[in-house]
Amino acid sequence: MSSIIMPALPYKEDALAPVISAKTVEFHYGKHQKAYFDKTAALIKGTEYENLPLTDIIRKAEKDSKAVSIFNNAAQAWNHVFFWEGLSPKGTSSPKGKILNLIEKDFSSFSVFKEKFTDAAVNTFGSGWVWLVLSGDKLEIQKTSNAATPISQGTAKPILTIDVWEHAYYLDYQNRRQDYVSAVIDSLLNWDIANERLTG
Ligand code: MN
């Protein structure tokens, strides 16, 4: 049996509404994300990847020109789990503690961070992800295209991410990516998890 098992969502499908509707979560988690997990499991079956943990599959496949599909599906599987875990239905909408100290050190204020994070999301061309990462002792914003993920390089530790593929917001916001990103930052980013990830 494959080691690739999709974890349950950490909350109910309607828990993020109205910022992200139950319908979007139903399709995003139940169809898109499930397909990434199912395809990863099917692609690694009987290969040298079969019994590796998901993060090892991603790092190995990225260097393997014959494993592009494995990389794309495995990285998307990992990115989605990380994304949902970084959101909170309760909307811990303002950072506290160590993460706030770092945001103020590296971006000067939370409102400047929000502006830069939103700009990065809006300016990610096509499908991708925007990330808050810890690089050394400094917070940075990164954009990745398609399935690319900061964990494959191993140089920066991801703290939070927002999925900016159209499937993440189109049912609720149509083409208004900026409104989606802004609402997620205001209401859903889980800053308690961000603090845990800084030291985890
Ligand atoms: Mn997605």
Protein traits:
single chain; 200 residues; mainly alpha; three-stranded antiparallel sheet; 8 helices; 3 strands; 12% strand; globular; binds manganese (II) ion
Structural class: mainly alpha
Q: Ligands in the structure?
A: manganese (II) ion
Q: N-to-C SSE series?
A: HHHHHEEEHHH
Rg value? 17 Å
Q: What is the tally of beta strands?
A: 3
Summarize the structure.
By secondary structure, the chain is mostly helical. The protein has helices at 22-44, 54-62, 68-85, 97-107, 110-122, 170-173, 177-187, 191-199; strands at 128-135, 138-145, 157-163.
Write the layout of secondary structure elements.
Blueprint: H1 22-44, H2 54-62, H3 68-85, H4 97-107, H5 110-122, E1 128-135, E2 138-145, E3 157-163, H6 170-173, H7 177-187, H8 191-199
Antiparallel strand pairs: 1-2, 1-3
Bound molecules: manganese (II) ion.
Structure characterization notes:
The protein is mainly alpha-helical. Helix content is 49%, strand content 12%. A 3-stranded antiparallel sheet has the order 2-1-3, with helices on both faces. Helix 1 (22-44) packs antiparallel against helix 3 (68-85), helix 2 (54-62) crosses helix 3 (68-85) and helix 5 runs antiparallel to helix 7 (177-187). The two termini are 29 Å apart. Bound molecules: manganese (II) ion.
